[in-house]
Write a structure and sequence with these properties.
One of its GO terms (cellular component) is cytoplasm. This protein is α+β, with helices and mostly antiparallel strands. Helix content is 19%, strand content 30%. It has helices at residues 51-59, 66-74, and strands at residues 2-8, 17-23, 33-41, 46-49, 63-64.
Length: 97
Amino acid sequence: MLIIRLQRVGRANDPSFRLVIMESKRSAKSGAFLEILGSYNPKTKKLQLKNEKIKEWIGKGAQVSDTAHNLLVGAKLIDGPKINVVRGKPKAEPVKA
């Protein structure tokens, strides 16, 4: 199964992430992704997305990780409520916006 997820690429204490599509069984650190779909810098809140490619992969049946889902909802690329991604909480519980 293919999944759209974040892959950390920043150096120590300076996080930066790529939005990539990869096989769900692989580790994000393995580097074995199929395509780069965007990037996210949490310090500056800068989000760059390849909208058409993301819609194409979702149309082909790719799943989206919870954090990537929240970024795409915030960018108005997909519809739906944000998902609570706090560790230790159930994943199915949507966040009230």
